[in-house]
Amino acid sequence: xRRAARxxxxxxxxxxxxxxLLGGVLASRAEADAEKSSGQIRTFGRILALVEDNYxxxxxxxxxxxxxxxxxxxxxxxxxxxxxxxxxxxMKDEQRGMFYGLGIQITKRGPDKPLxxxxxxxxxxxxxxxxxxxxxIAKIEGQETMSLSVQDAVRKxxxxxxxxxxxxxxxxxxxxxxxVTLVRDEIPTHSLAHAFLVKPGIGxxxxxNFTSTTTGELDEALASLRERGMERMVxxxxxxxxxxxxxxxxxxxxxxxxxxxxxxxxxRIAGSDQDYAAKGDRRTTVPLVVLVDSxxxxxxxxxxxxxxxHDRGLVVGETTFGKGLVQRVIPxxxxxxxxxxxxKYYTPSGRxxxxxxxxLDDYFLDPExxxxxxxxxxxxxxxxxxxxHTDSGRTVFGGGGITPDYVVQAEKEPLIVSRMRRDNxxxxxxxxxxxxxxxxxxxxxADDGMLKDFRTFLESRKFDFEPAAFxxxxxxxxxxxxxxxxxxxxxxxAESRVLAEGDLQVQKALTLFEEAARLAEAGxxxxxEKDRKGASTAELKAAAPAS
Length: 547
Fold this sequence. Notes:
By secondary structure, the protein is α+β, with helices and mostly antiparallel strands. Helices cover 42% and strands 19% of the residues. Helix 14 (474-490) runs antiparallel to helix 15.
């Protein structure tokens, strides 16, 4: 016994000694790593000082350091990012769904173009003061605006609630410019761009991003549309870059059964493995079609992927962006923040949303700029991608965004129309047309007389174009003119109603509601079957004798 005890004691001493030795090795390694990092930081500081002292041009240390931080983070992945104080504040304002300002949407088409109001937001200081689409903001507090960027102008117009700002307005038809003094107030930034009946019984809801108010806005829109007789619905997530995860879960919860998985995340650090299920009792069961495109990303892909995986509706449009990396935003002492990727998103069927980013140039390439001759056809988009299955057993693909059930490419815009939009001629013409047609009715048309007048306007603007190109694009010109005039006269929703007439993806969606309804029934049957199998498996395990 004594010999055995001595052996145990010896083993204990050996283990303790080994533990101390291992701890010493780890401590030494940590000290070595710290020393290495410290040395690298000293090298960086030395290089920064040499650049500041010796570079041929001017070099600002704060800009150099910020660019160095961004460069470091971009070696990790495309979405880890450093947000300086200004950018972080703007991001928080956007996600909070409000800021303090005047309530106007402004644009500036170029360095030599005036700062122009696109539209005032309803029930804001700008709207109450009578500011109009097309008004030029010539001065802000006496300072000329021609040299300002839109971002610079926005920062001057924003400010503390209750403070005043004076702007100088130039208005078409007014002989002289005039001053308007406004009091800054809380401005809501709505994430629902519009919600209306595109046809009797068919609601169209467009979500432009996911902020803290999105789910609440959607609830209000759905209630309003139901009161107006909505029996079928199109959810438009095109060009939606994403936003808050909890709002994506909230939106998805309005369409799929309570308790069903919406999305899950997996990562390396504690707390990064999370499952998010549908919650709440507000739910709509109308047949559903979701619209997406190559600019639908992140939270948009969570919602569309969830709806597709659970067979709740059909997805139409173009394969989405493929942004499935989760960023944790860590505030920093300088007022900025670090947005660091800590996990990945997966849809309920197990699809990884994130696409390959080994080639960053290709990753950020705008599909609109991609040569038609080299663009991959829709039939090859799923080659080599992971395969998963929906609740009803349909095949879906992961690892490269959400591939629609019906791939419908947006119609390519004629070059002459793109140039007109870039030079703002539709908007400028619409402002003049509305001013000279105060009794304009909603059923107006872009007849030959309007198109002739528009050509005269283009000539007065010295806008060069080929007459043949103008004639070939008459259908698109008709649509764009009517849409822009409707926006200036009645607002963004009126513009969207007109544009929907020529939208190939919307028009395809309107033909698919019967199929969407059958799919939802098949998905429910598939879930019930899975639940029965799960219950049977659990019963068999419970009944099995203990081994």
